[in-house]
Every structure is written in structure tokens, then in C-alpha cells.
Amino acid sequence: METAGQLVRENHLLVEARANEASRDWPKAIEAYRTLFNFFPDNPEYGLALVRAQTQAGQGKEVMGTIERLRRLPREAEFDPRVDLATANAASLLSDNGLQASAADSAVRKGRLIGAKLLVAEARAQQCRALVNLGDFDKSAAACEEARAISEAAGDWAGTARALHSIAEVPMDRGDNDRAQVLYEQALAIVRRIGDQRGIARELGNLGQIFRSEGYWSKAVQYEQDMLDVSREIGRQIYVADALETLGQISRAQGRPAEALGRAQESISMARAIGNTELVALDQIDIGDILADQGNLAEAARLFDLSLKIFRNIGENGNQAMTLAEIGRVRAARGDAVSARALYEQALAIQAPLDVKGDLAATQVAIAELVCDTDAAEAEKLLRAALPEFQFEKRGTDELRVHAILARALLRLGRTAAARAAVDAAVALFDRGSLMDRIEWKFADARVRLAEGNVARAEIVAQQSFDEAKSHGLVGAQFEASLIARFLVMDPPGFG
Questions:
Q1: I need a surface site. Which of 74, 104, 119, 488 has the fewest CB within 10 A?
Q2: Which of 151-160, 164-173, 328-337, 383-392 has the lowest mean pLDDT?
Q3: Residue 246: which of 213, 275, 288, 273 has the closest Cα?
């Protein structure tokens, strides 16, 4: 840059663009590459460089406009696999799984024709991620493995790390957290060795997701905060938004709703600016969950409905099923058990062929909770079927929840000793549960103590639960604690 003033205008701009790209000053890099592409619109190299900078900056909508300009160039749309690969990258940013998969497939075909092996590897990794999101795990696994094999053979360690990351998404979605963690850690070791900051942020985030799902809250916060710091340093906006979304979920789980809401709102604002509709939908669900905790069921339902439309539009079947279950919980809270059950059954019908056993188990637990007071036998059957899956996936907070609801069902069946065993079995999981699930466990403990005749201790536990729910603004939990307190006064020991 210090000596570029003596160069002709084109070369001066190119030096300026590369310098800004190297320093991750994406707005300046974008402006320089845009100027070059405008001055030399028949040069695809400048258009591809502009796409790369816009993608890094998270400008999803602008990227697609640049790609359309590239496709209008003679021969580029027909013969250049880099345009298809750029399209796949942009589609990933916009969470358009169908376009990502088809564009990556086109890049693979064209790349094979010209012998561009590393480009084929990157395109196959893109295919892998899109196919995982679309629920086609067999095809995704084959795409991932080819991407890894090509990258390793060529000594392309950044590509190898990307492939390992993509491979990990299959066991991650299927609940094999141990296998996913090993793959993410292998990828993290590689990107740290070669100094790939973008890769470092990516792997930190996924490891944080694993620890969050298992209820290791401190570890999850550490990894997600590290991801956030690295992502802000390199200007990778989509990773910043992802980290904020996960940190917001952790804040809610730990009983800090205001903090959780602030993070979700910051994340959704960034996701909308980028054009990533999937993240917008996930943030809306997070916000809806917080509002539902606080008793604002109408607004929560509205947000869930908006998210459901997005997931249907982009073909995210797993998230679509999860959202149907969220809507079902709102209907259940409003007392519409028939509608809630129908929504849960719709979710199960989507989840069963996807082989996402943990999510399917979560929906079974929702049904069990719904029918616990009317058909305790069915509830027990559903809960005992779900429990081994949560144990396999190490989902501590879900396992704690199962034990609490199971104790309630067993009391309805008059099996007090078995209910006590269910409550006691979850003691070791208590610290890994979310605040809501810890309170639910305390409710179960109070009910069991009442059934055992220990009214004094039951009253203390119920009062503690009520105070904790009130201090965190959990309206539904306050109501449940009040009901237990009424039974302490009105019902003799043995109440189920």
C-alpha cells in the first residue's frame, strides 16, 4: 500500500482490496472490489473476489446480486464451477438448503470435468452440510467423506478441517455427541495449528453447542464466548449472531431472562441484516420461549407461527417439527389438550423418518406431560422410552425433566416408592438442569414428600420453588407451586 500510488489505477485498487481483505476490513475490501468489478465488468476474478468479501462480511442479500452479474458473463454460468461454489456459500449464509445443495452439486460436476480436485472437495463439503439440514444423512455422509479424502491427499489442512466439521454434523444431529465432539476437536486442532481464525471460531461454536445440550453450562459459556470474541475480531457477522443466539439460550436456562432476551434481540437484528432466515426463525423461538415463561402466550404463539413458516419455506424439517412441538406447548398451557396432542403427533411424524432420536424423545416427553394427569400409564410408557435416549446423548437437563414428570405419573398410579426412586435418581443431574427443570424437579420432590406423609418438608420445598419462580418471573411455575401449596392445606398425605 505504501508504494501502490505509482501503479496504474486497476493495480492500485487491487493492492488496496487485498490489503483490506488481509486485515479483515470488509467494508473497505468490498468497496475496492466493487469498484474494480464496475470498472472491469467482464473480469470474473473481480466479481468472485467481491463475492468472497461480501460473504465474509455476512452480506447475504448483496452476494446474490453479485452472483447474478457473474452469471450474465459469457461462459461463466455454463463452465466456471467457482460461480456455483460461490452460490453454494451464499445460499448457506441465507440458510437456503435446497439452493446450497443444488449449486454445490453443479460445482462438483464442473470441477470434475476440469480436474479441480480441491474445488470439488469444498463443494462436496457444502453438499454435506446442506443434505444434513435436509435430513438426507446417507448422501451427506458420502459427500463429507469424499471431501475429507481429497483434502487430506492434497495436504489441504483447512479443507480437511472443514470436511471433519461437516462429517461431525451427522452424529451431532443423530445424538452421538461423543463422536461429534471427537471430530470437532480434531478439526479445532488443525485450524489452530495453521492459524485459521474463521475455522477456530466455527469449531469453538459447535463444541459449545455440545456442552450446552449436555448441561455443562460453564464450559458452554466459555466456548461460545471464545467463539464470539474470535468472530468479532475477524468480522464474521454470521458467527457473531450464532454465538449470541446460543449464549442467549444459556442465559435463559440459568434464569437470566433479561440477558437472554437482549442477546436474542441482538442476534435477530444481525440475522435479518445478513438475510439468514433460519437464524431469524431460531431467534424468534428463543424470544417466544422467554415470553412464554413470563406468561405472554399470545405473543409467543405468534412468533412460533412465524418461525414455522420460515422452516417450511427453507425445507428445514427437523426445525419444523421442533416448532410444531413449541406451538403444542402453548396450546397445552392454554388448556387445549386436543390441539396440543395433534401438533405433537405431527412433529413425531416428521421426526421418525429423519432418525433424530433425541428430538423425537423430547416430543414424546411433551406428550407424556400433557397426558400425565389423565393417562398416567401412557405417560410412564412414553417417559421410560425417552429416558435411554437422553442418557445416551448425555442431555442432562432433559433427563432431569423426565425423572420429574415420571415421578408425577407414578404418584397418579399410586406407586409412591417408585416415584421416590425417580426423584432420587435425578439428584446427580440437578446442576446440569435448566432453572425451569430444576424447579420442576423440586415440584416432584414436594409431591412425593406429601404422598409419603412428610407435609412439613413438602411445604418448605413448595415455598422455595414458588419464591424461586417468582424471583425469575416464571408465571407458569408460580401457578404450579401455588397449586401444590393448596393441596398441602386441603389434602391429606397420600395425594398423588
A1: 74
A2: 164-173
A3: 213
Query: Phi, psi (5° rounding) for residue 107?
Result: -65, -40
Buried b (16+ CB within 10 A) or exposed e, 354-375: bebbbbbbbbbbbbbbbbbeeb
Distance CA 282, CA 323 (A): 9
Q: Which alpha helices (H) appear in 394-474, and where do they start and end?
A: 396-412, 416-425, 435-452, 455-471
Q: Is the pLDDT of residue 214 over 90?
A: yes
pTM for the model stands at: 0.83
The 8-class DSSP code of residue 491 comes to S
Buried b / exposed e across 226-241, counting CB within 10 Å, b at 16+? Answer: bbbebbeebbbbbbbb
273-329 tens-digit pLDDT: 988 999 999 999 999 999 999 999 999 999 999 999 999 988 888 899 999 999 999
Buried b (16+ CB within 10 A) or exposed e, 305-343: eebbebbeebbbbbbbbbbbbbbbbbbbbeeeeeebbeb
